[in-house]
Amino acid sequence: MSHYLGVDLGSTTAKAVVVGDDGAIVAASTRAMGAVSRAGMEEAVADALASASLTRDALAGTVSTGYGRRLVPGAQRTFTEITCHARGTVAMVPGARLVIDVGGQDSKAIRVDDDGLVEEFATNDRCASGTGRFYEVLARSLDCPLEDLPDLALRGGADLEVSSMCATFAETEIISLLAQGLPVADIASSVHRAIAARTLALVAQVGRHTPVVLTGGVALNRAAVHFLSEALGTDVLVPAHPQITGAYGAALLARDAVQRGQEVVDDVADADDLFPRIDHSSAGHSCAGCSGLLPPTSTRVDLGPIAPVGVHGQLG
Amino acid sequence: MTLTAAPTDRTNRLSTTRVGGQLVTDYWDDLFTAREQGKQIVWYNGGALNPIFQAAGLAWCHGEALSARLAAQRLEGPAQLAGAEYGYNSELCSYSRTHLGCAVLTLGGDPLHDDPGSSTGVVGLHDRENLAAKLPRPDFFVNNYAGCSTGQQWDEISFRVFDKQVPIFNVSLPFLWGNKPDAGYLVGDEWESASRYVADQLRELISWLETQTGRPFDWDLLSESMTYIKQAAELRREGLDLCKSSPAPATFWDWIASVAPINFLPGNQALVDYFQDVKDEIRGRLDAGVAAVEGEKYRLYFDGIMNWNKLGFLSRKFAEHGAAVVAGRYIQNAFWQEPQLIDPSDPLLGMAQHYLLCPTNHGAKTLDHLTLRDCEEYDVDGLVFHSTRTCRAFTGPQRLLAKSAQDKLGLPSIFFEGDVADASFYKDEILESRLVAMLESIDVKRARAS
Question: pTM of the full predicted structure?
Answer without folding.
Answer: 0.85
